[in-house]
Amino acid sequence: MKALMEVQDYLFSPRDVGDWDGEEEQVADQMNAIYHAVWSVIPDDTATGEVELLLSQLWQQLSADSLVLEASEEELIDWSIAFVENQLAADPEPSDEDEDDEYEE
Question: Is residue 78 within 8 Å of residue 34, measured between CB atoms?
Answer without folding.
Answer: no
